[in-house]
Amino acid sequence: MLSVVVLISGTGSNLRALIEAAAEPGYPARIVAVGADRDAAGLAHATAAGIPVFTVPYSAYPSRADWGEALRDAIDRFAPDLVVLSGLMRLLPPSVVEAYAPRLINTHPAYLPEFPGAHAVRDALAAGADRSGASIIVVDSGVDTGSIIVRERVDVLPGDTEDSLHERIKPVERRLLIDAVRRIADGDIDLSDPAAPASQARHPHR
């Protein structure tokens, strides 16, 4: 059974979907804790499911490095096999990435390497793209530059706003995350092999 810590910053819609999937019989992963960098509304999903929560407020530390050390200490208490960033709106310090990579994955609302960064949906619309997407990647020290585990296209429709496009991307992102965690737990995706995530991106599992 793969043990997972999930980190969030907001409402935790992806987290809620993963909690529901992990509660299903036969799902090969369990969420052992959920953490946040602020008093995030999404922590309530974990509390309702009886999952331990922790908060490491970014504002409470004098530097990003100090915050990262505290975050790593909090995560280490649960000794996870995998750390999932699910809407964590904070760039992890190198010390945290080095501690968990490649067992550290992130969701992103675009078809990477297109539109990295915090405003992916807005950037896709501003660029006049006719398609965007969703991706699950291995986290590295860059901004959405890690190896791609899986990704899927989502069409941009005439008249789309940032909200309407994002609402269509979110279900795809959730499905990809649930499937990626399952396949990591089953050994279908080997995060220790840098070539494995890239091959999965070329041949996405549906």
Explain what the structure shows.
37% of the residues lie in helices and 21% in strands. The chain contains seven helices and seven strands; from the N terminus they run βαβαβαβαβαββαα. Strands 3-2-1-4-5-6-7 form a seven-stranded mixed β-sheet. α1 (13-22) links the parallel β1 (2-8) and β2. It starts with a strand and ends with a helix.
Layout of secondary structure:
Blueprint: E1 2-8, H1 13-22, E2 29-36, H2 43-48, E3 53-55, H3 64-76, E4 82-85, H4 94-100, E5 104-108, H5 120-126, E6 131-138, E7 148-155, H6 162-186, H7 195-202
Parallel strand pairs: 1-2, 1-4, 2-3, 4-5
Antiparallel strand pairs: 5-6, 6-7
Tell me how many strands there are.
Answer: 7
The level 1 CATH classification of one domain is Alpha Beta
Using only C-alpha atoms, the radius of gyration works out to: 16 Å
CATH arch. level architecture of one domain: 3-Layer(aba) Sandwich
- The count of helical stretches stands at 7
Q: Could you name the CATH topology of one domain?
A: Rossmann fold
Pathway: Purine metabolism; IMP biosynthesis via de novo pathway; N(2)-formyl-N(1)-(5-phospho-D-ribosyl)glycinamide from N(1)-(5-phospho-D-ribosyl)glycinamide (10-formyl THF route): step 1/1
Protein name: Phosphoribosylglycinamide formyltransferase
Keywords: Purine biosynthesis, Transferase
InterPro entries: Formyl_transf_N (IPR002376), Formyl_transf_N_sf (IPR036477), GART (IPR004607)
